[in-house]
Design goal:
This protein is α/β, with parallel strands linked by helices and about 120 residues long. It has a single domain, classed as Roll (2,3-Dihydroxybiphenyl 1,2-Dioxygenase, domain 1), CATH 3.10.180. It contains 3 helices and 8 strands, in the order βαβββαβαβββ. The chain has a 4-stranded mixed beta sheet. Strands 5-8-7-6 form a 4-stranded mixed beta sheet, covered by helices on one side. It is globular. About 20% of the residues are buried.
């Protein structure tokens, strides 16, 4: 058995919140979308990372995922996000911090998910 990628699905009450986070803030691109479907969705991608986001109020209220993105330059990622979207910085990890397990991390959050950025 061989796997090459994990593609998470995240549910939002309003898919425009997902686009604000992933497209505007993190600069993902929309690979495919069907915003007119009964359950609007899109596939977002950047640097070989993919995520599917769906608009589904019921599922969004049941699921609050936390995602981690690894990077080789956490300082640059932090500088970009803190300059363009400082309101998304998570109050408990709003600066690059060396964690006890050896990774540097900071976190952001929107209405639906939490996201940690890591550099080992």
């Amino acid at each position: 058995m061989n796997f090459s990628k994990l593609v998470p699905s995240v549910f939002y009450i309003d898919i425009s919140d997902a686009l604000t986070l992933f497209v505007d803030c993190l600069q993902f691109s929309i690979e495919h979308e069907d915003f007119k479907a009964l359950q609007p969705y899109c596939v977002l991608a950047k640097d070989g990372v993919r995520i599917m986001v769906f608009q589904d109020e019921q599922l969004a209220k049941e699921h609050y995922p936390e995602l981690r993105l690894e990077t080789d330059d956490i300082e640059a990622v932090f500088a970009k996000i803190s300059a363009t979207h400082p309101h998304l910085l998570h109050p408990n990890l709003n600066k690059v911090t060396l964690r006890p397990w050896g990774a540097k991390e900071f976190a952001i959050a929107d209405k639906q998910i939490g996201m940690r950025f890591q550099q080992w």
